[in-house]
UniProtKB/TrEMBL annotation:
The keyword Membrane applies. Keywords: Membrane, Transmembrane, Transmembrane helix. The chain crosses the membrane at residues 59-80, 108-130, 150-168, 180-197, 225-244, 265-288, 308-329, 350-370, 376-393, 414-433, 439-459. This is Purine-cytosine permease family protein. It comes from Shivajiella indica. PANTHER family: CYTOSINE PERMEASE, CYTOSINE TRANSPORTER CODB. It comes from the Bacteria. Coiled coil: none annotated.
Amino acid sequence: MEKEIRQHKPTEISEFERQSVPASNFKDWRKFLGMYAGEHAAGTEFVIGPLFLTAGVSAFDLIVGLILGNFLAVLTWRYITTPIATSERLTLYYKLEKIAGRRLVTGYNLANGLLFCFLAGAMITVSATAVGIPFDMPMPALSDTLPSSLSWILVVLGVGAVISFVAAKGYDSVSRFSNIAAPWMVMVFLIAGIVAAKRLGVNSFADLWAVWGSGSEPFPGQIKFTFWHVVFFAWFCNAAMHLGMSDMTVLRYANKNSVGWTTAAGMYVGHFMAWIAACLMFALYLKSPEAAAIFANGDVPSVSPGPLAYDVVGLAGLVCVLVAGWTTANPTIYRAGLAFQAIFPKSSTVKVTLISGGIATIAGLFPAFAMRLLDFVAVYGFILAPVGAIIFFEHHFAGRFGLKENYAEANAKSFNWAVLMAWLISMVLFYGISVYQGVFLSFFTLPAWITCGLLYLVFSKTFHKK
């Protein structure tokens, strides 16, 4: 098999969208370490950290919950996503086409690509809050949904154009940009957290603990976060990437399964240190006269990353916010481009990636994607994760159930009803329970994933001919 891969010459499409990645293009752990650190110590962290405080989380629940939740996420990447990625060497979209059929996977790719664009749009919003400060641009409020000014629109369009151009240059460009930016961004996050802590009077671990204390009542429109909310959010905020197998698209380049451990750089540098640093910056802002005046007027303070970082570490903070948005949006737009390219295989990767960047830029004009990021990433992971279960369960259990792998390709089918039924039933069932019972959606991501995989095996065994 390896010999076949080595002899398989790349087509004119350099990103290997519809073929196995040849061994000559395998990459070692160093290529992934910087990318994961840069992607996850990035724009989302400047928003999610403060949003934890708006959810009234306590110090113990936040710190210990993040340690456990991030560890579970790393294990999921290492033992669920990476082995399949290195075995198949295919993008998620092409692999799913082999199982689900061309017509069905077109709908999935459209949904996947759009969700990626919306997430990238939130990161363009983050970067725009930094660019807009020198122009005295009005910042979006926590409750804003629509663009607030002409200057906001112009800044977002400019930032989105630059990010889209970098993403369109391909995986190597995305990886190179992340590797260059990641070390510096991590240092700024760390320094900003230390400076904010000092200005809050933190001189010991007990003082740090006292910044949050036992938590508080959530801001209007936010739900109260407990220990388990933090654990499951940290575990499944990237559910689309690991349980949903989206990172097959990136990890297919890995030269060995141990590369999966590099995701820990993103989780503990980004989703631990950076989230806590951002929390401290927002906690400092909440003690300012400006925030007190906003509360006195019955309003809610903004969580715009640019002003928060600028107040703590000045110009370096602004540049960090700007670059942080880039390093999240770049690989996200790259993934979206591959999703759309699977729908239009004759189109060039550059073209569809630029279109993806345009959609993301339009989404970035609307602050709601960033200001409601906790809710958005929970829904985003919940929708896309169950599809990864179909790949996982087929990969590991098809032989035991007497099923043929890659059913649609093997039987020249364009629509696999077993996939659609398993996906819809698992999503509708658990989303309905979440809404009806008022339960945090991330609690149902894993049950929906397992249910989807089991239903796929049952439906395939029942309806598919040998």
